Amino acid sequence: MPASDSLVWVTAVTVVIWAGIFVYCMGLDRRIRRLEGEE
Amino acid sequence: MTKPRLRTTAQWLLGIWLLVVAIAAFHWAPTARGFKGESSRIVFFHVPQAWVAVLAFCVNLVASLRYLRGRDPLDDARAAAAARLGLVFSVLATITGSLFAHVMWGSFWNWDPREVSIVILLLIYAAYFALREAITDDERRASLAAAYAILAFVTMPFLIFIVPRIYFSLHPDTLINTRGAMDMESRMFQVLMGSLVGFTGLFSWLYTLDVRLAKIRLARRRREEV
């Protein structure tokens, strides 16, 4: 596989991992905000 | 702007920032000469992870000292949150480091002083959690963990900064070398700095989430006690 193709794949994997972390943290943040509201 | 809205804006900005860093790391920054293939690009992730681990252990120390002074359970929770993140980012730095080692030196593990010292540091902070899990009494656990955190931190500069410089290491020259000069191509340097800022922001976000959760837990426990 040419280097540029593999770089695109690595970028895609990195972006997906980061998007996963981001979505998880946003969800957790929303949940914590709700719990803080209940307190 | 209200606090939650400001927080959400900062989170989205961080999300976009790290997305841009990820793309720039692979498609805008050049590769460094003398490194196999694209292996030098790992610096944009490995160095910020190691930096965040050091930062987290510093926060752990400060929170532990604050606990010993004020005996506030929230400081204990802050110390635990920081150590947890320090441990996670140390593991990530070790993994990215061994991926680089595999490409450059043909093996994931080479018994290099930097590899060994980070694993020792990992074990030291893993023991911090073993200690926390072993004690059931909250106050006793917090006091002993804080005292242990101070001792653990003393080893950190030795293992991270001194040992790898005393012994011969395969590890590439650090960013700030013995001449005190930044020997990095400007685009690489910009991406690295961007990544350092982004990872620091990510640490701060994760840390804040953990502390906010601990605050809720403590408030509930106090209510149950009353």
What features would you describe in this structure?
The complex is a heterodimer of chains A (39) and B (226). In chain A, 0% of the residues are buried. Chain A has one helix spanning 3-38. The mean pLDDT of chain A is 87. The radius of gyration of chain A is 17 Å and the shape is rod-shaped. With 39 residues, chain A is mainly α. Chain A has one helix and no strands. Chain B is mainly alpha-helical and 226 residues long. Chain B has one domain (39-171, 181-225). In chain B, 78% of the residues lie in helices and 0% in strands. Chain B has helices at 3-27, 43-70, 73-105, 113-134, 138-166, 186-225. In chain B, helix 2 (43-70) crosses helix 5 (138-166). At the A-B interface, helix 1 of A face helix 1 and helix 6 of B.
Features:
heterodimer; A: 39 residues; mainly alpha; B: 226 residues; globular
Number of strands of chain A: 0
Proportion of beta-strand residues of chain A: under 5%
User: How would a crystallographer describe the biggest sheet of chain A?
Assistant: none
Shape of chain B: globular
Radius of gyration of chain A: 17 Å
What oligomeric state best describes the polypeptide chains here?
Answer: heterodimer
Taken as a percent bin, the fraction of beta residues of chain B is under 5%
Mean pLDDT reading of chain A: 87
Biggest interface, which chains? Answer: A-B, 20 and 22 residues
The largest β sheet of chain B comes out as: none
Helix content of chain B: over 70%
Q: How many angstroms does the end-to-end distance of chain B come to?
A: 37 Å
| Number of β-strand runs of chain B | 0
> How many domains is the backbone of chain B divided into?
1
Decide which structural class fits the backbone of chain A.
mainly alpha
Which structural class matches the secondary elements of chain B?
mainly alpha
Number of helices of chain B: 6
Q: Which spans of chain A of ≥5 residues are poorly predicted at pLDDT below 50?
A: none
